[in-house]
Amino acid sequence: MTILVGYTRTPEGHAALRRGVETAGSTGKPLAIFPLSDRAEGAAGDASLEAALGAGARLLERDPQGRHPAEELIDTAQEAGAELVVIGVRNRSRVSKILLGSDAQSIILGSPVPVLTVKAATDER
């Protein structure tokens, strides 16, 4: 079983990555990192991602078909046999959620495995 982190280069994404690394370390489970951004997110220049990869985490690749990131993360969780999905969340107004939707909400409601949501510390924003 794998710990799967939905990662973005944001304070919330870094918080999710830290929690995923901690959880994988304490449970002895492998860590997989799924980039939620539409663009490719290599490790170059991202110290926290480089550290996680150096510690044995695996960086997954997005489907070139361009499906919605939340749907792809849910499918990846099933395919990888994930035990836990870790994502970062932030506060949003009700109107913002209605107009723009919420990837986090889609993942939370659609995931077949437990989802751990984490917030960035206030000093990271």
Which descriptors apply to this entry?
single chain; alpha/beta; five-stranded parallel sheet; 5 strands
How big a fraction of the residues is strand? Answer: 15-25%
User: How much helical structure, as a percent, in the residues?
Assistant: 40-55%
Structural class: alpha/beta
Oligomer: single chain
Largest sheet: 5 strands, parallel
Number of strands: 5
Task: For the largest sheet, list the strands in their spatial order.
Answer: 3-2-1-4-5
Low-confidence stretches: none
List the total number of helices.
5
Q: Overview of this structure, please?
A:
- The structure is a single chain.
- By secondary structure, the chain is of the alpha/beta class.
- It is built from five helices and five strands.
- Strands 3-2-1-4-5 form a five-stranded parallel sheet, sandwiched between helices.
- Strand 1 (2-7), helix 1 and strand 2 form a beta-alpha-beta unit.
Compose a concise summary of this entry.
The protein contains 5 helices and 5 strands. The protein is α/β, with parallel strands linked by helices.
